[in-house]
Amino acid sequence: MNSAQIEIQLIASLVAVACAIPGTFLVLRKMAMISDAISHSILPGIVIGFFITHDLNSPLLIVLAALTGIITVVLVEYIQKTGLVKEDTAIGLVFPALFSIGVIMIAKNANDVHLDVDAVLLGELAFAPFDRLIIAGTDIGPKALWIIGVILLITLTLLIAFFKELKVSTFDKGLATSLGFSPAIIHYGLMSVSSVTTVGAFDAVGAILVVALMIAPAAAAYLLTTNLKKMLVLSVVFGIFSAILGYWVAHWLDASIAGSITTVLGLLFLAVYLFAPNKGIIAVLYREKQQRTEVSLITFLLHLKNHSEVEERHVNHLREHINWQKVRAKKVLDLALKNNMIHIDNNVVSLTEKGETFTSKAIDYIITNEDAQIEDMKDDFFLFRG
Amino acid sequence: MDLKEYFSLVFNDYTLRTITLGTAILGAVTGMLGSFAVLRKQSLLGDAISHAALPGIAIAFLITGAKDTNILLLGALVSGLIGTFWIRGIVKKTHLKSDTALGLILSLFFGFGMLLLTFIQKQPNANQAGLDKYLFGQAATLVESDVWLMAIVTGLCVLVLLLFWKEFKILLFDADYTKTLGFNTKTIDILITSFIVLAIVLGLQTVGVVLMSAMLLAPAAAARQWTNSLAKMVFLAAIFGAFSGVFGTAVSASQNNLSTGPVIVIVAAVFVVFSFIFSPSRGLLFKQIRFIKNRRDLKLHKTLAFMHQIAETHEDISHPHTIKILNNFQGYTKGTLKKLVDKGFVQLQGNMWSMTEKGYSTAANLYNQQTDSHE
Description:
heterodimer; A: mainly alpha; ABC transporter involved in vitamin B12 uptake, BtuC; Arc Repressor Mutant, subunit A; two-stranded antiparallel sheet; two-stranded antiparallel ribbon; elongated; B: Arc Repressor Mutant, subunit A; 3-stranded antiparallel β-sheet; 72% helix
């Protein structure tokens, strides 16, 4: 590894951390798409800033771009408040319009601007180490590293200083207001941090990767934990992991670093989405299947309790009557047998004593629909799962 | 005459005619389907799908090695559909919300697409240049066969809309009721979503991945302001979309260095802003005017009620009072007094006023019943 490679990975990791922190709150506040809107609509701000300064790394550029980001948020909220369209439509209307203005401005001045829309959207991390920050004649590292480092430092300071406020206002807006935190200030604070981070990172990694780095680690973390602190830590870890692995994938494929970091993030999310212990898709499908079987079992037991006639309780009749497939009927029957709920004589099914009590309890619960009843039953319930 | 020249060009010049027709048809079909997306609160789905289509284009190119538009769009369609159904899967089966799911699919698919595009660019294949036109679209590359494809898809879409109009409409406004009626909501849902994906994919070549969502939303959002009827909205959105396409093409053709996609989006945005402000029933302008008018009426009522209170204390209701005693009342201005006189509720004699019979009875009933005599 040479020093440029280390620097690229360092920049990518810092961007990942700087994005993961506001991203976690955006995901929790159901405002993930706002980050997408900001990442597009900062374009006119960047273009105007570039016209004034002719330097892609000037602080004025960042200020102007962050300002357009905040204008986007304000515009979206204004349109939403008029009640003419819903929030998502408002977002979808504002950012393409602003983005188009940016694209047109670049196109009209294409001759004297070497600013590329692709560069804004995609960035080129590979070139970041070549743009050095030189103070008083000494080279102190790549500019991008310093910019994102400062942004990350500010984000971290704000996070630590206002962690409690952020937490309360994210999960209970009403409580936050009654405690005296202004939700508006926190909201716009978060929006400002998101804008500044997007702007600071676009040069290095591009606008789309910023969105991916904000949302994907947070979403993956959210599937694994419901504790805010753990979620923050997890999304930071996921971000750094994908940044470094993504770099090496890009190195190996000789392709865009931003694209490969996003791809690694995508695979990471896919893995979590499939295999997360409680909320992953496999766990959810398994649980749903269990629940279906349990409901079938209860239906079956209730049916037995309702009918004392022999012909109603005959094994073959059950299948016709409750309208179950052969396999399913057998599965339910086996489950009930295994738990000593029923016994079968001559193909006639009847409830055992245990089954009787259980069914009465179940009826009680269904009739009264009180939670207290089911607490009692839950113990019995898990017994079935053999 | 510039305009005349332009029109003669539209009819005579092959390229301009093709592009104008193409963008018009595209605008119409996205407007129609966009109405459903907007009303189903799936506005951002378009954004996600259009980004999600990118890897499909790249993979289709990698497999076939040819730049045939139809095959690339087929790839885009497949990957757009995969993205859409993954979004649905995330929203349905996990506790992640739809905004997170949309943002995830959008950025992850797009990033993967970019990885593939940059990978393709490094390949030793002379054919690969120009794939990135799908990022921002290039209407100039439209040829007649593309326009035919658009026209066929639009025709198909209109046909399906007409056939399943009732089902789409009922699903849109009351999904639970639709289920109880025995319709297969899942199939209808998939049908309409697939058509939205199809419309988006069609537009990729012209408008590009990044701006496609605006083509879907803007005409529909503008049309929504003018009507409350679904049929009218779909129709209006189609017209708005078509006009955005035509105007956008015209503007971008008349200037150098202007790509068509962003201009079409700006034109559509102008339609939206115009509708937001000037729509008679929902527009901001008329809402504000109604607001001011209501406030004035209220002030008038207040003054009248105050006069009524004074008049009540006298046996003769038309007993004259000085105008001065109204001065410490906030609803009173010279204008309101004059209006009351004009309406015949009050008579003026010098600096004295007195209530008329009509004014007295109106004031007495002011809060008892809803008099529509003022409106």
